[in-house]
Write a structure and sequence with these properties.
With 187 residues, the chain is α/β, with parallel strands linked by helices. It has one domain: Rossmann fold (3-Layer(aba) Sandwich). It is built from 7 helices and 5 strands. α1 packs across α7 and α3 packs parallel to α4. The longest helix has 20 residues. The radius of gyration is 16 Å and the shape is globular. The structure holds adenosine-5'-triphosphate and magnesium ion (MG). Magnesium ion binds next to α1.
Length: 187
């Protein structure tokens, strides 16, 4: 993996990626709360047509995704231009999507939340009011391209409690000291 060290004084941007139900939003919100960073939910940048397509159980095409990803990139650029660090939950399943998010934005690195299909299915069955049907999980898993060696980022397993996973992510990203059991240190 590439060097993960954020340069002090410059904004840090984490894109929390993974298939539907892997726990991206949970981890991303946790990072935002712990670090006091700006947060965005990638799903909210989808044009209405995309939301309707997903709700009807149809996978999005890449043509559907480019405008969505560009809007997320714009949001990231806006934060960076204000010197703000930020975290975005965005599936970013394919290398091409991640390359678009990173293009011209060297602050961006990834946190891939990795979970077993059975665990995801179990969690999605108990989740209400969400527009992504569990039937799309298989196609998401088939589409997923793991982080390449040359992509900046970390892979974090979604085993255990939400707190366990958050601490694992913060540590892997170098946002808390290895010694710290439950949160960022002030030293
Ligand atoms: N470590 C965990 N233990 C138990 N439940 C969890 C854990 N992490 C997330 N969940 C639950 O699993 C469900 C999926 O998590 P979350 O919404 O964060 O996933 P997501 O990757 O953002 O999904 P989507 O792509 O559909 O938005 C939620 O109901 C969440 O509360
Ligand atoms: Mg989500």
């Amino acid at each position: 993996m590439a060097d993960l060290t954020a340069q002090s004084g410059t904004p840090d941007v984490i894109v929390v990626m993974g298939v539907s139900g892997s726990g991206k939003s949970t981890v991303a919100k946790g990072i935002a709360t712990t670090m006091g960073w700006e947060f965005a939910e990638g799903d909210e940048f989808h044009p209405k047509a995309n939301v309707e397509k997903m709700a009807s159980g149809q996978p999005l095409t890449d043509e559907d995704r480019w405008p969505w990803l560009r809007l997320i990139g714009d949001w990231i650029s806006e934060r960076v231009s204000h010197g703000q660090s930020a975290v975005v939950a965005c599936s970013a399943l394919r290398r091409a999507y991640r390359d678009l998010l990173r293009e011209g934005r060297p602050q961006v690195r990834f946190c891939h939340v990795d979970a077993d299909a059975e665990v995801i299915e179990e969690r999605m069955d108990s989740r209400e009011g969400h527009y992504m049907p569990a039937s799309l999980l298989a196609s998401q898993l088939a589409t997923l391209e793991g982080l390449g060696e040359d992509e900046p980022g970390v892979v974090v397993s979604n085993d255990g409690s939400q707190d366990d996973v958050l601490v694992r992510a913060l540590r892997a990203l170098g946002l808390v000291q290895e010694e710290s059991p439950s949160g960022p240190t002030t030293s």
